[in-house]
Amino acid sequence: MDHIALSPERRALGKSHLMVSPMAWGMWRFAGDDVNAARAKVEAALAAGINFFDTADIYGPDNDEPFGAAEALLGRVFAESPALRDQIVLASKGGIRMGVPYDSSPAYIRAAVEASLTRLGTEQIDLWQIHRPDMLSHPAETAGVLDALVGEGKIAAVGVSNHTNAQTSALSRYLRAGIVSVQPEFSLLATAPLFDGTLDRAMKHGVAVMAWSPLGQGRLGDGDPRPGRRVAVDTQIAGVQSALLAHGEQYGVGIAATAYAWIMAHPAGIIPIVGSQNSARIAESADAYKVRFTRTEWYAILTAALGENLP
C-alpha cells in the first residue's frame, strides 16, 4: 500500500524566491532578557532543520512585556551573532494596534514595518504579513503601500494571516507583488481550512500555507500548553490523542511530531509553526519526517478529530 512520505528538503515559499524548511518556528512566547538563552532557542531550531522563523510586532504583551518585545529580543540575538540572520528566512506580522485593534492604513503599515526593522536590526524582512484584516482599509490602499515597501527593499514578500478567502482575493486583486502565503489556524482541533476553501484556493494559486497553533494551543500532544490555559480533556481530544499516539508508536515518535506530520501530509504543503520554546521539544519536531501515512490512516485520524464519520 502506498504511503505518503515527508521530506525535510527546503522549497520555495509560494511563488517567491524564498527557500524555506517544511516547518517553521513561531516566536509568540519568545521572551525574557537572557540573550544567551534566546540564542540557544534560535540555534535549536536551526539544528532541527528549521530556517523559517515567524514573529510579530504584537508579540510581547501576552508575555507581560512591551509591544515589540519578541522582535527586540531577536534583534539583540542578531546583534550579538550577526551570522545567524543570514541563516534565517525571517517572517513578521503587523497591523494590530493596542486598543484599536486593527489598522492596515498606508501610514500605519509603513510605520509598523519600519519599527519592526529597527527592533530586529535588519535591513529587510523576508516575509511581512498583515496579522489580521482591517475592515476599514480599502485593499487598494493597503496594496499600494505594500508594493511600495517591496519596491524599497524593506520587505521581500507579502503574506496574510487570519484572512478569509474573500479578503485574500480582494487584496490580491490590487497587489502587484502578489500574496505568497496565508496563515490560518489549522490543527486536528481546528480543521476549518480543509472545508472552507482555504487550502483549495492556496493550491489553485500556488500560495504557501502556514499553520498556526498546529497542536491546538497545546491541547494535543506533548508540547507546551498556553500559559494559564487549562488543558481540556474531553472525549474528542482524548480520541485524537489516542489516534496520534498509536500511529506515532509505529515510527517511534511522540504525539506532537505525529500531529505535525499529519498536517504536512496534505498536498497543499502546509507548514506547521512549532510554538515550543523548549529546546528539546524544538529538536523533537524533526521526528515528524519519520512518519508515514496511508490514505486510510490519515483519514482515520481526521475522523477521530471530527468525532463523526465522513460522508
Query: Span between N and C termini?
Result: 23 Å
Order of helices and strands: EEEHEHHEHEHEHEHHEHHEHH
CATH topology: TIM Barrel
Low-confidence segments, ≥5 residues, pLDDT <50? Answer: 223-232
Approximate strand percentage: 5-15%
Gross geometry: globular
> Approximately how much helix is present in the residues?
25-40%
User: What's the CATH superfamily, by name?
Assistant: NADP-dependent oxidoreductase domain
What number is the mean pLDDT?
95
CATH class: Alpha Beta
Work out the number of β strands: 10
Coarse structural class: alpha/beta
Task: Assign the CATH architecture.
Answer: Alpha-Beta Barrel
Profile the largest sheet. Answer: 8 strands, parallel, barrel
Backbone CA Rg: 19 Å
Put simply, the count of helices is 12
GO cellular component, one term: cytosol
Protein name: Aryl-alcohol dehydrogenase
Domain NADP-dependent oxidoreductase: 23-301
InterPro entries: AKR_Detox_Biosynth, NAD(P)_OxRdtase_dom_sf, NADP_OxRdtase_dom
